[in-house]
């Protein structure tokens, strides 16, 4: 497998979360909210897009409570409990392969490790719960520093979020590898001089980390 990494200069590894560390199904929340609300999936998808709920929540413009309130209002289900909304929202998250976590733990010996994710607090709480159930460290313990879009109020592929990570962590772009499944995210990182690796199926992050 061809690698774009220059291992002679590599000191830092930045990981995306969804579809890099934990497999995801992006269509699952809309599909499941549609079932709960007894509405056509396309209608719910259109509502989501029109009101830009994902981006607002993932960039911290609205908090958990406001997000849930918007979901109830837009889908006309005022009596949905927080737990129902959170559980449905978290259906995007699939089973977490423990071997990926074990490999990341091994890499801590030789590299500075970071997480950079467009995500929401409900998702992060759930991933950390899954990790705890597997007797694994939380994301905040696994990485030297985590950068969540909702905390930094920026999102990939904006160049500003990469610059924020480099500055905040004191990283040199050329000494840093970034692993992401999204082509636009990879492109922007590469333009800033970061060694950007596009994680694409059928390969997983383990394939790209094999020779590091």
UniProtKB/TrEMBL annotation:
Q: Which InterPro entries match?
A: HAD-like_sf (IPR036412), HAD-SF_hydro_IA (IPR006439), HAD_sf (IPR023214), PGP-like_dom2 (IPR023198)
SUPFAM superfamilies listed in its UniProt record: HAD-like
NCBIfam families registered for this protein in UniProt:
HAD-SF-IA-v3
CDD domains, alphabetized: HAD_sEH-N_like
Q: Which UniProt keywords apply?
A: Hydrolase
What name appears for this protein in its UniProt entry? Putative hydrolase of the HAD superfamily
Species, as recorded: Spirosoma endophyticum
User: MF terms per GO, please?
Assistant: hydrolase activity
